[in-house]
Amino acid sequence: MCGERMNRARAWxxxxxxxxxxxxxxxxxxxxxxxxxxxxxxxxxIEGFFELRYTLNRGAFFSLGADLPDAYxxxxxxxxxxxxxxxxxxxxxxxxxxxTRLRLGLGLLLTGGAGNLIDRIHRGEVIDxxxxxxxxxxHWATFNVADVYLTVGIALLIVxxxxxxxxxxxxxxxx
Length: 175
Known about the structure:
Elements: H1 2-37, E1 43-46, E2 50-57, H2 70-93, H3 100-123, E3 126-134, E4 138-139, H4 145-162
Antiparallel strand pairs: 1-2, 2-3, 3-4
Helix pairs in contact: 1-3, 2-3, 3-4
C-alpha cells in the first residue's frame, strides 16, 4: 500500500514538473514573440514553409468563438477550458503507473490548456506566432507552443485509444 501511494505521489510530481516546465516555455516564447515580432513583418525560418509572425487569437482552436462579445468569449472559452482541465486531472488520477503514454498525453493536454488559459485571462486573447505553410498553396493556422502540446497530447490519446497500454491485474490464487 505504501509503495502504491509513493508511485501515485511520483506520478503527480512528474505531472507538476512537466506542466511547470511546459508552462514556462510556452509563456517565455509568447513573451519573446510579443517583444520581438509585434508590429514587425514576419520572419522566414524555412523559405516557403515556416515563419514567425505575431498574431492575437481572440477565439479557440482555428479562432472558434472569436466573434462572441468580449465578456461572453472570455467566460465561455475560459469556463470550457477550466472544466476540461478538471476532467483531464480526474482522468490522470485514474491512470495506472504502466500507462505512461496516456499519462504523458494527459499532461500535455493539461499544460497546453493551462498555457492558453493564462493568456485568455491575462489579456483576453492568445498570442500565436508559429506559422506553417507550403508557399502560397496552403496556409495552416498560426499557433503557439501550448497548441503544440495540445496537438501532441491529443495524438498520444488517439494512439493509446487504438493501442492501449494494458494494465496487469494481480491474480490471486483460488481459496
